[in-house]
User: Fold this.
Amino acid sequence: MSAPILVTGACGGIGSAVITHLLQQGLGIVATDRNAPENQAIPPDTKFFRADLPEDIDKLVSTLPGSVGGLVHVAGVIRTHRATDIEINDFDAIFRANVYAPLKLFSALHDRLEDGAGVVFVGSLAGLRASPSNLLYGASKAALHNAAKSLAKEFAPRGIRINVVAPGLIDTGLTDVTNRELASLRGGDASQIGVERIRSIPVGRIGSPADVAKAVAFLLSDDSSFVTGTEVLVTGGGHL
Assistant:
């Protein structure tokens, strides 16, 4: 692929790891995030556009140079809540960010994607199993997983492969926030909840953003040329 890969959510732990890994593979990158890069989260020579999705999608796509070699959509939001605490504002915000934004971005971008391009949506293990404390988040990721399958079938004639990476527990700032929210919801200590969550992973450790980035790189590469419309679980066995 000669055209650059667009990576959203570029300033977060997973997004910045994806960019670093893809650059090491010799791929060109265009990065975007709602926040400006801080603490060298993005290499200084990487093209970066600040955009708040979905509001700025049209502006973002209009600024992209020429064709696009692929898309990695990392951006999203997570909120912890009791399974019976369903508020319309939370529902709208979560589904807008986690479902509408990636689908709208793909809709605006597909004419610019090269034939044979790879598309990877970052979903979640929460979209594949019961997640009572993150019910809306899990439901939104389940919707994204399903939509990716439909897009994969629709765009297969152009050789565009569309897959989902579904991480489990990954060591990012969002995980720390979730641990604190779970402690507030359930009562208890956030650090202890974090330890207990790690203990539930069969391989015995929390995942790293680099673990996710490697799976993304595989799905963008020719090594996965016969893989489309599927989920790659990066969970350390946490789904078992």
Notes: The chain has a mean pLDDT of 94.
